[in-house]
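Team,

Forwarding the record for the chain on the shared tracking sheet. I've put the sequence and predicted structure together so nobody has to dig through attachments.
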Amino acid sequence: MTKTEAEIKKRINIAQNMSKKEIKFGFPAEKNKNHSKFKGPVSNLATFHEFGTSRAPARPFFRLSNKRNRQKYKLLLRAKSLNVMRGNTNYLSMFKTLGFVSGNDVRSSIKSLFSPRNASSTIKKKGFDNPLIETGEMLNSVTHVIVNA
């Protein structure tokens, strides 16, 4: 086998290994925990905020973060994929980087979303008006996990 053939075989192997993994970010079931005040999984609370309920309006922090940052993620994956294929880094590092970046973006979206505002009764109860933050548990639960595809 020539050096070129060996290099091609190595890159095919890398691509096959990458295709066996996927990243989940946000509130993945594999790392989901119960919220102390909500008395249910944090992912359910996040879903209620994201899509709204009969008593609370939608506050789409997750979709907004993804929409705002989609191009950034594409560019990041393109650059990191090239580094993986060149042997400068491994694909797990690429997935971890994407997980950290996307997690930071979702947390930023949670912190910066102030509309629609809380009801005055909610502001009085919480003592402040940040619709997506009360205990900080949802904010601190944003994470990622790399799993087999």
